[in-house]
Write a structure and sequence with these properties.
Blueprint lengths: L1 E5 L5 E5 L7 E6 L5 E6 L4 E7 L6 E8 L3 E7 L5 E6 L2 H8 L9 E8 L9 H6 L24 E9 L7 E6 L6 E5 L6 E3 L7
Antiparallel strand pairs: 1-2, 3-4, 4-5, 5-6, 7-8, 8-9, 9-10, 11-12, 12-13
Amino acid sequence: MGRHYVLPDGSIEHKFAALGIAFANGVALSRDGLRLAVASSSMAKVHFYKRDPSTDDLTPDRDVIVPFGPDNVMYDDDDTLIVAGHPHFPSFVAVVENKPGAKVPSWAVSIRPFAANEDGESEGQKNSHSKKTGYDSRAPLSASAIAPASSTDEVETIFQSDGSVYGTATTGLIDSRTGAFYLTGLYEDGVLVCYPEPRSI
């Protein structure tokens, strides 16, 4: 990953900001511009970097493993990262190849840093002391069944489908005013909208 400059004389300079990201995919900048998140689809993780706005230099901060191949990432208004992606790549390939009856599961999660307590230790660090501690307990299939708990961030499922409801998830976002969750799929028709409260149709 790098940045490019077009100089007044028309020449182009570029600078590598982060190297060695396997299948770098979605990129998101926090609202304050101080943090950058990059999805690594093949490694099922999100890399977080600290960013110096004056130089655009990036410093590795932490990695968070997710239970699927992350596609796009987006910060919401509270700077919680929304990540959507594909939990079963062979199914995704089957849909791409237009195989009869193929469907692709979808998964979207939020990633939020743990707040530190008075001792300077986060809840995640406390929980990581116990190998038996689970997380994401409200999901039909908990992320904890696939990905190890993060010691720095809370990972929580927002949407999950075996593909019969909505598949090939690629981008998710939350409207902070209404709480509605929006999801797009690479091979889906239209946008999926989930509301926090029941609505009459």
